[in-house]
Task: inverse folding
């Protein structure tokens, strides 16, 4: 249902008539998102790839405009759902009494501070854009596994944050400095040193006193359920090797000059127990740029650029428990040292590196790794996948979770509702040189086939139940009332406290809580 | 309720052995070395278990008395955050809860109760090949957990991945008396069940979509009482080498430390002025003054380290790369050897002390600390040096992967000299205000400065913090009056 014309007029006064649309075509288009059908099914709705249709789509260009839009939403009791690069159902409204705040006009890199090692970005800056600019300063940024096309701001403030380079660049939530935040009532709050009335600056996001970053997000973000984030400062890291980036040819078969000090290792650890030992051993040495366990199929995918290319790599796919490590260095000395350490560990553990013997990657692989684009190779075989699991603690619990998942996943493979990866679709990474680990189990399914969608949804629910009952940690997509109600009582009754936060900061429940928690036990719209 | 009935209730919770209303004992908790006005609590209670804490908090909510948690009962306190603001206050001294609950070498994590001190934990970990990430030469009797909760800076910035490090998961009683576990410790499952599944409570984030540990940290005990926490550890190196560069000007040292940290080439990394470096490594006033005079004004100290079979190879690569950087910056002439023994430096950067180093010069000090960015460092130095031309210690610690700097000015004075004490108090307030007005970010606002700090911060922050207080401590029983929370 479109906005009342008088209300529309007030929104137009904020953003101008060219930056708001409540027409049927635009609002219907915005109701689509990738994998929406799964989430609809899990909510007991028809498994279609559309969310409720927003009343309008509004495109603000500044923080002040966002604040005015949110205030209008409060005035008229209309919910808002904010989105930036917009990948996935988490960007969709949960009710038709909602507008979408599309932040694509806020697309500036506000500041690159090479001396204090951070950059300030607006919501619609992609990781790739940021990386390109900071490379000029010899710097790099953390990117989530979703890839370089998504918004670093969204990952830092509102979504999740594991990435392929997490051993050396951490987790998005832990790289946050100053934050500019439009609260659900339309007030603008600035965290940390950015909140100083004089000499505002972005270098810190905590305090004075308690850090409100703890309200802003947890391991997972609030998906716009606690307001809109309009600018954020994120930490930068040294670019892992030379920033010379020589690329020729055409997509997807680019040729790339592999940097001098970069090397990939792929080893079959054979068992999960041995994998744990190998990952801990390598990470203790603090040498890896990337250190990931993947299924054989996933290793095939990261080296492939097309489905044909993927199928050519069956020899890699036959590895039981592959570990992929990339080392990079700034100098010859550093590179030699790191290679020596890897050599020592391989010898000690009697592991064989297949690179250069069994398989030699195309140079473009190295470019994809540097761009943090390896996750997108998961889409080569199918457009539809979702991850179950998502525990983040020790390597041991990640691998226990993985092991227990395999037989369960095979049941759904047998039913032919999800793709046959032999139950082994996993990705696990270390963070911060092995201080903690995260695993998820990406599973491919057919978004266009209702039985596949339903089967995938059932598998995800069964996986959640297993995590709960076997104490395998919370999956990373515990969001929305239903899952909070399921997990909360088993987790310190956290849902009660999270709801109190929602009540305190959004008493009118204007920030859409479909992927967060409602202020009341069941939101009025849903009842 | 009469005083006696409350006393009886406290005794019934903790036993008379652990409850005191002895004026001599209460007096010890009524003041510290800060300039915060004295006030004695009505009782001091030493809980020995979590049940005691829960019952006391429930009672406090029912009878509306204040609870001030503290963790280290011996040794001087400095910041006025544990002195009662209200008449009806009880100090909850957690120093008897001093178990090291778990040391996990494989996952590089330790779980401790609040009463565990640096003096106790450091050697225990060392015996297992582990090291704690510590602030600069901490007092041996200081609570490790409190130090982490207060976001005290650690001296190895490359391991400071987030401003909250090394704090990981916690078990906490909110002001309501409800027990909560933060991070992955929240569950599913009890801690035992989690550990049986292979977990070690190493992920501080969460549960799910919020991270309550971040609001408990920096709250000065006003939102929750932490009964245990896990802390991140690192492995002990087998070889270390100390580098000491001296200069009479600071910019070149700042440039060098920036490069070293950016490329994560060294472990400990800090800048001290001559007086603070001398105070760290020497004991008596005479020795401190003597060394201080020998040193140039600014001292960059860093340590490189190696471990295991390839330790020597690592040292060789690090040293080679570092010498190249020093050469490129043309700072070779600043390298200093022999003035201070390397082992003395390693000792102060890895151990606790029974003899607090900031008290060595004159017996008293008032610290002014805040965080800032690279560009403002020289400006702040000149502001303070104009006001305090002598007996001024300076410590600059890069933190949070080099994105900001902890900055500490130590104003040394003789505490037995009332005139000097009053003068320092005035200077402390005057300088702090000037620094705030020039953009210093007092991220840990204590005692008499807190109001001034919040005055200079957006109102929206205070409003949000008050909402948070209302959620976790609705009756304002926990340490009322600190930060921006009303008495």
Result:
């Amino acid at each position: 249902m479109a906005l009342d014309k008088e209300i529309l007029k007030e929104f137009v006064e904020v953003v101008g008539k060219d930056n708001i649309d409540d027409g049927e075509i635009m609002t219907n288009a915005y109701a689509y998102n990738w994998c929406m059908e799964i989430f609809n099914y899990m909510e007991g709705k028809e498994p279609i790839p559309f969310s409720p249709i927003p009343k309008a789509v509004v495109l603000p260009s500044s923080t002040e405009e966002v604040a005015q839009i949110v205030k209008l939403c409060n005035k008229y009791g209309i919910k808002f759902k904010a989105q930036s690069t917009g990948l996935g159902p988490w960007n969709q409204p949960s009710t038709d009494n909602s507008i979408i705040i599309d932040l694509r006009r806020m697309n500036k890199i506000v500041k690159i501070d090479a001396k204090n090692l951070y950059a300030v970005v607006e919501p619609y800056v992609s990781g790739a854009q940021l990386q390109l600019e900071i490379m000029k300063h010899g710097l790099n940024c953390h990117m989530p596994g979703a890839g370089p096309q998504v918004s670093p701001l969204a990952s830092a403030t509102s979504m999740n944050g594991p990435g392929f380079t997490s051993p050396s660049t951490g987790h998005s939530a832990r790289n946050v400095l100053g934050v500019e935040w439009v609260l659900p009532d339309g007030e603008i709050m600035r965290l940390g040193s950015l909140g100083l009335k004089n000499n505002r600056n972005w270098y810190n996001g905590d305090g004075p006193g308690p850090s409100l970053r703890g309200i802003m997000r947890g391991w997972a973000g609030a998906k716009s359920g606690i307001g809109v984030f309009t600018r954020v400062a994120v930490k930068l890291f040294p670019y892992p090797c030379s920033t010379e980036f020589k690329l020729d040819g055409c997509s997807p078969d680019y040729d790339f000059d592999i940097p001098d000090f970069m090397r990939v290792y792929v080893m079959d650890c054979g068992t999960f127990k041995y994998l744990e030992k190998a990952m801990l051993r390598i990470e203790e040495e603090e040498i890896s740029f990337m250190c990931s366990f993947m299924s054989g199929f996933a290793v095939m995918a990261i080296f492939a650029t097309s489905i044909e290319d993927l199928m050519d790599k069956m020899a890699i796919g036959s590895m039981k428990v592959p570990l992929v490590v990339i080392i990079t260095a700034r100098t010859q000395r550093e590179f030699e040292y790191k290679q020596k350490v890897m050599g020592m560990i391989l010898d000690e553990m009697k592991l064989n590196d297949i690179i250069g013997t069994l398989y030699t990657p195309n140079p473009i692989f190295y470019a994809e790794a540097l761009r943090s684009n390896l996750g997108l190779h998961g889409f080569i075989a199918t457009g539809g996948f979702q991850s179950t699991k998502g525990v983040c603690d020790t390597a041991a619990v990640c691998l226990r979770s993985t092991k227990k998942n395999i037989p369960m996943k095979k049941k759904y493979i047998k039913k032919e509702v999800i793709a046959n990866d032999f139950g082994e679709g996993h990705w696990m990474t270390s963070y911060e040189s092995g201080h903690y680990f995260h695993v998820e189990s990406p599973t491919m399914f057919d978004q266009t086939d209702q039985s596949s969608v339903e089967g995938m949804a059932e598998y995800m629910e069964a996986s959640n139940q297993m995590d709960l009952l076997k104490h395998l940690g919370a999956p990373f997509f515990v969001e929305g009332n239903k899952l909070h109600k399921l997990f909360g009582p088993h987790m310190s009754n956290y849902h009660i406290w999270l709801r109190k936060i929602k009540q305190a900061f959004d008493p009118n429940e204007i920030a859409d809580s479909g992927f967060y928690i409602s202020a009341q036990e069941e939101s009025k719209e849903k009842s | 309720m009469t005083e006696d009935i409350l006393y009886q209730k406290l005794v019934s919770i903790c036993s008379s052995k652990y409850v005191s209303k002895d004026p001599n004992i209460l007096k010890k908790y009524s003041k510290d070395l800060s300039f915060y006005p004295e006030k004695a609590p009505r009782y001091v209670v030493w809980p020995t278990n979590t049940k005691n804490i829960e019952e006391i908090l429930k009672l406090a909510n029912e009878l509306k008395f204040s609870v001030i948690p503290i963790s280290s009962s011996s040794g001087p306190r400095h910041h006025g955050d544990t002195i009662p603001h209200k008449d009806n206050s009880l100090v909850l001294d957690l120093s008897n809860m001093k178990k090291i609950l778990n040391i996990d070498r494989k996952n590089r994590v330790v779980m401790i109760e609040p009463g565990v001190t640096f003096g106790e934990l450091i050697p225990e970990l060392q015996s297992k090949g582990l090291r704690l990430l510590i602030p600069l030469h901490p007092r041996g009797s200081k609570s490790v957990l409190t130090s982490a909760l207060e976001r005290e800076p650690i001296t190895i910035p490359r391991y400071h991945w987030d401003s909250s490090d090394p704090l990981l998961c916690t078990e906490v009683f909110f002001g309501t008396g409800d027990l909560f576990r933060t991070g992955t410790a929240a569950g599913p499952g009890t801690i035992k069940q989690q550990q049986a599944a292979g977990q070690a409570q190493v992920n501080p984030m969460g549960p799910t979509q919020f991270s309550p540990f971040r609001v408990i940290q920096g709250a000065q005990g006003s939102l929750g009482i932490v009964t245990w926490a896990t802390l991140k550890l690192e492995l002990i190196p087998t070889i270390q080498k100390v580098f000491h560069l001296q200069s009479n000007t600071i910019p070149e040292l700042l440039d060098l430390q920036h490069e070293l940290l950016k490329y994560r080439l060294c472990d400990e990394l800090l800048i001290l002025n001559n007086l603070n470096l001398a105070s760290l490594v020497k004991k008596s006033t005479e020795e401190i003054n003597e060394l201080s005079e020998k040193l140039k004004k600014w001292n960059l100290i860093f340590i490189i380290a190696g471990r295991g079979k390839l330790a020597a190879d690592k040292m060789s690569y690090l040293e080679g790369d570092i010498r190249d950087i020093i050469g490129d910056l043309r700072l070779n002439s600043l390298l200093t050897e022999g003035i201070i023994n390397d082992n003395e430096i390693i000792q102060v950067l890895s151990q606790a002390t029974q003899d607090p180093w900031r008290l060595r010069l004159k017996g008293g000090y008032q610290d002014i600390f805040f965080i800032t960015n690279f560009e403002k460092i020289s400006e702040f130095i000149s502001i303070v040096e104009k006001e305090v031309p002598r007996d001024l210690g300076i410590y600059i610690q890069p933190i949070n992967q080099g994105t900001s700097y902890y900055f500490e000015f130590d104003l040394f004075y003789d505490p037995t000299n009332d005139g000097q004490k009053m003068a320092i108090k005035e200077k402390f307030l005057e300088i702090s205000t000037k620094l705030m007005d020039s953009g210093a970010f007092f991220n840990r606002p204590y005692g008499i400065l807190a109001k001034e700090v919040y005055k200079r911060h957006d109102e929206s922050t205070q409003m949000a913090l008050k909402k948070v207080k209302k959620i976790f401590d609705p009756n304002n029983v926990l340490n009322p009056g600190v930060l921006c929370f009303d008495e």
In short: Chain B touches chain A through 96 residues (CB under 8 Å).
